[in-house]
Amino acid sequence: MASISTSKAEISYIQSGLLSNPPLRADGRGLHDFRIISLETGVAPLANGSAHLNIGKNPHDGGGGTEVLAAAKLEVENVDLGGGEGVDGGRIVCTVSCSPSAYPHLSAPALDDLQHDMSTLLHQTLAHPSLHPPNLGILAGKKSWLLNLDCVVLADAGNAHDALFMAARAALWDCKVPRTRAVEYKAAAAPGAQAVESGEMDVDHDAEAQQSGFDTRSIARAVDFELPDYWDEGEVLGGRERWPVCVTLNVPPGSKGPLVHYLDAIPQEEAATPLRLLLVFSFPPASSPNLQAIRVLGSGELESDQIRDFVANGEKHARKIWDALNGKLKEEDHRRGQKARDRFARR
Amino acid sequence: MISFASFPVQPEHTRHFPDDEDAMDLDDGDFEAGGSKITWPGETITSSHAYMRGHGTYVEDEQVVASVAGTVERVNKLVTVRAIRTKYNPEVGDLVVGRITEVQPRRWKVDANSRQDAVLMLSSVNLPGGVQRRKLESDELQMRNFFEEGDLLVAEVQAFFSDGAMSLHTRSLKYGKLRNGQLVTIPPLLVRRLKSHFLTLPCGVDLILGLNGYIWVSKHVKESEQEGEEGFDAEAVYSNRNDFIDDSTRTAISRVANIIQVLASHFVPLTDTLLLEAYEWTVENDTDARGLLSEDVGDALVATITARA
Q1: Which one of A71, A90, A111, B36 is CB 3.0 to 4.6 Å from A144, fit for a cystine?
Q2: What residues of A are in contact with residue B289 (Cβ under 8 Å)?
Q3: pLDDT, greater one: B238 or B27
């Protein structure tokens, strides 16, 4: 992918360091150490959920690192009118765009290819039916929510895929769906003839909407919806704890015997690694982990019997990322909920 | 091992700048004294009636206003602001570390952290055979055997072209292709001009401080084992193979590289003595390269060595 130009001597220096015993990396990290990850949710006021994530920021001056911004925005879609794209129960569309300043060495078409690849991976993984949130529908057969998840890679200092999935998970975790209430028009001529379908519907009496007495089909009569409380942010996406995380296993060349792999590569290491294995895991509560996607990047080879070991190892690493990310997301929820209220009360 | 942190919190009350603009204006006396004053972009420096605007400034409402963060400099009536974060401004004789970006007919293009790519002519490198000789057609045809795209090299600024691009040369045995180590990039401003830019630390690490902010940290090569003058061996000089590097040297290289990163993030200019002291500090405190990545250790290191200096 993003191969910054690196000399052969540098590549061989990095590779022999990774394969030496004990393995040594250029910045002194262990093979499975991540750089420090900074995360903040709720950064975009106009989005329904957003997150800002940085891997490997310099702790002192705050420069550098892989920087990703993710925002989820809901819009209303008609389900069946005139070849609309809407689907009953809502749908998710993920887009990734890469800032040209993150990849200054790439030409415009190459950058397009890169963001298309990333968009495809993110979309295919997150829009999968197994992860679909149950509360994206508004009116069956009429209206539904379209969830647009837009991610921007502002800077790439290595490991962009892991950052992308972490930011996506944080933004979707943060996403709030507005509460809706169906509106129904009911013929005044036949009071009490039709049962009110749901207690919480608003019933407007409308003499124009006369219906034939012979029509006995049960049609959903709700035609539109309203927001019961404009100021309420709504409820969280259903099944938000299922959104997956990605772990990239970088496999240095020539590691035949013990399966050497390392995490969170910097760009130079990425350039020196011919094989990168992306594993996307979801750990739903009270069931076994799901492997949501696998991708192999690079020109290296992978033997089929190695895959099982890599998946098993990847699951362990993904579990750690998952636990750490969940802790951080809870902390962010607390910061923006409880602490913000306290601060407001003190004023 | 994975850990999460928060982004730094923005201060709730933004600083209010003084209303009286006059207090900002520097008069004549302030210019002499205010050599180390740092401007922020949009800061009013002086009146445009008395002074001329130079680089890094613009005129608004008859005032000279800084357009970058940097130090104010004045030559007679010309006021300039030298930006803190800037590209490298080459001067003839500077030692730079660069990376080949392109191979062209009879020349290489070199990225040297400057505004334009530098040029390394085929006639300004050492050719196989050792003696100073004319370049041949065969040399032109095998330019990629000397340097190819991505290769790092150390060179000296020889001259400038009319468009301001610099021309490099490697006509010394100290210059040439780099191997056995790793590159660290810091702001060019932080590399001071020293007596020698080839440093050797006692931990078995060689350093090449390029004035363009590229620093090569590599395994120490003994004087006697350097590719000699008489038997100029093109194979060895233009080799892409690393020597064997033992683990302790590797650890030392990572440690030195991280020290440079820490110093650069605290904006401490590099000197040989400073680097040596910093390395000794890490050894005394038993800090490995990984420990240097944490903020507390970095702060402690910088506090100690800047206090000593």
Answers
A1: A90
A2: 27-28
A3: B238
